């Protein structure tokens, strides 16, 4: 997809961004050990893990993507209240971080992730997932459980609550499954890769960018 120089620039950004994200995840988990109920910190850790996974997908490191996806799924279970962060979960996730860092170092030296053995990390993560015994979060608009139903031809804006507010005004969140979130983040990742490519070309050859546009 990219020429050699652009690929090198993207890889440099890949290592820098993942390194920062992994460090934030580690710091975040230390804070969660002190305060497991800190939902804001848990959300931040989840987002960073998702970033690492998305970067690995974009650069086609499949084994790293699979491992970070499993770790992300566990974090999503925690966010959904199916379990609470504890020392055991923290230890497993820290082991995942160490494994990811080790493979990234191998890639820096010219290797890849194809020979990486993450069987132990996958096994430990799967044990924790089995214990949470939760399904993926289904797409769900959180509306009131009232008796009102939409009649044919009505819209959400037509339905009112006893207080006079429309139901649509009370829909303050949307819950997405991991698969749907993956699709969205993949598209964002592709846009990011295209943006980085254009940014690189602008610095190297503005005329080539004009031709593309």
How would you portray this structure in words?
With 213 residues, the chain is mainly α. 65% of the residues lie in helices and 2% in strands. The chain contains 7 helices and 2 strands. It has helices at 4-34, 39-58, 62-79, 87-108, 119-132, 178-204, 206-212, and strands at residues 140-141, 174-175. The protein has a two-stranded antiparallel ribbon with strand order 1-2. Helix 2 (39-58) runs antiparallel to helix 3 (62-79), helix 3 (62-79) runs antiparallel to helix 4 (87-108) and helix 4 (87-108) runs antiparallel to helix 5 (119-132). It is globular. The two termini are 18 Å apart.
Mean pLDDT level: 77
Q: Order of strands in the sheet with the most strands?
A: 1-2
The SSE string, one letter per element, is HHHHHEEHH
Structural class by sheet pairing and helices: mainly alpha
Percentage of residues in helical conformation? 55-70%
Uncertain runs? 134-162, 165-171
Largest sheet: 2 strands, antiparallel
Give the helix/strand layout.
Elements: H1 4-34, H2 39-58, H3 62-79, H4 87-108, H5 119-132, E1 140-141, E2 174-175, H6 178-204, H7 206-212
Antiparallel strand pairs: 1-2
């Amino acid at each position: 997809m990219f020429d050699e120089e652009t690929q090198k620039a993207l890889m440099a950004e890949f290592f820098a961004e993942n390194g920062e994200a992994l460090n934030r995840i580690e710091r975040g988990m230390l804070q969660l050990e002190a305060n497991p109920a800190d939902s804001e910190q848990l959300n931040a850790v989840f987002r960073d893990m998702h970033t690492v996974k998305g970067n690995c997908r974009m650069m086609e490191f499949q084994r790293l993507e699979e491992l970070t996806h499993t770790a992300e799924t566990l974090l999503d279970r925690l966010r959904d209240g199916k379990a609470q962060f504890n020392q055991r979960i923290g230890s497993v996730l820290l082991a995942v971080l160490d494994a990811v860092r080790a493979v990234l170092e191998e890639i820096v030296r010219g290797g890849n992730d194809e020979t990486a053995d993450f069987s132990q990390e996958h096994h430990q993560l799967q044990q924790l997932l089995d214990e949470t015994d939760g399904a993926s979060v289904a797409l769900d608009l959180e509306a009131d459980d009232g008796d009102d139903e939409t009649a044919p031809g009505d819209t959400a804006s037509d339905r009112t609550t006893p207080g006079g507010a429309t139901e649509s005004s009370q829909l303050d969140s949307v819950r997405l499954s991991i698969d749907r979130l993956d699709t969205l983040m993949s598209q964002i990742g592709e846009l990011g890769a295209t943006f980085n490519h254009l940014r690189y070309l602008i610095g190297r050859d503005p005329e080539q960018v004009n031709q593309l546009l």
